Amino acid sequence: MRRNLYKVYLLLGSNKPFKTLSSAQIIEEADKLLLEALLPDYLEVGSLGEVADASEILENEPVGEFDQEYDKENNPIPTGNFFNQVLMCQTHKEPLEVLDECLRVEDIFGRERTYKVKGITYQSRTLDVDILRIFRADKKEDKSLNKDLSWRELNINEKRLQVPHPKIEERPFIKQLTLKSEDKRNR
């Protein structure tokens, strides 16, 4: 059976440790889980070539207005810097399946969404995975990922998923996050 082939760009962010993991370690572990969930079964993570790539992990100040958190004595806890990374991978999963995998991985790292209850836009988080962009290969593939495919960007505007991400332009640090393969080409 032939399936659509997609190239997805994800933004991973964390500014709150989880158990014994720092924010940067959370992103590294989430990378592994996302690649395992999204890459086609016939690919081995050790031989990814052009089908998966990631940027370096970048530390930056939070963007936007944050919900203030307090400690046990009711003192405000400063919002820590975020650690962010862009992850790209090719997958046969449909866009909503990709979203479900991202939410599943966020849950593994204790992601809480209390801001929806409070009406606040941003809050500190152990892990946030946003789908930035999705491209579909012009032809359908079956068990052969080809770096010479032509890609068409998808525009999705559904209740659960908007792609390209609607706030991509509000996050200037995203432009600093270049995939390792792009960085090598620009040298």
Radius of gyration: 17 Å
Order of helices and strands: EHEEEEEHHEEEEH
The poorly predicted ranges are none
Helix content: 10-25%
Here the CATH topology equals Alpha-Beta Plaits
Number of domains: 1
Distance between the termini: 41 Å
Name the beta content range. Answer: 15-25%
Tally of helical runs = 4
The rough form would be described as: globular
| CATH architectural label | 2-Layer Sandwich
What structural category characterises the helix and strand content?
alpha+beta
Strands, count: 10
Report the top-level CATH class: Alpha Beta
Mean pLDDT: 80
Tell me about the largest β-sheet. 6 strands, antiparallel
State the CATH superfamily name: 7,8-Dihydro-6-hydroxymethylpterin-pyrophosphokinase HPPK
Describe the fold and architecture.
This protein has 187 residues and is α+β, with helices and mostly antiparallel strands. It has a single domain (6-185), classed as 2-Layer Sandwich (Alpha-Beta Plaits), CATH 3.30.70. It has helices at residues 23-38, 95-108, 115-118, 180-185; strands at residues 6-14, 52-54, 58-60, 69-70, 76-77, 82-91, 128-137, 151-153, 156-157, 162-163. The strands form three sheets. Strands 1, 2, 3, 6, 7 and 8 form a six-stranded antiparallel sheet that branches. A hairpin with a 5-residue loop joins strand 4 and strand 5 (76-77).
